[in-house]
Amino acid sequence: MGKHRLLRLVLKMDQAGSAGYIVVALLTAPIVAIISPLRHLMWLVGLLLGVSGLALGLLGFLMAWGLTVTMARGEEVPDHVWKFVRMLPKS
What we know:
The protein is mainly α. The chain has helices spanning about 5-35, 40-70, 80-85. Keywords: Membrane, Transmembrane, Transmembrane helix.
């Protein structure tokens, strides 16, 4: 259980980051429409969205790297890792 702890953390952070980024992007559209005359504020909002997107991309890269390393070692990702990340129905 302990050897897949980092992979489980990255998978969970990627899932939460993706959901959060969608919410932030949807909430940002009306804000941008309101502040569009204020160029400096527009740059700040764009910068925040850009940095958030880069962080999410880095999490995706770390997730792919962790899964690749795990599979290259000939290991399988245990079911408890997937159940921790996704809400799977109980079988």
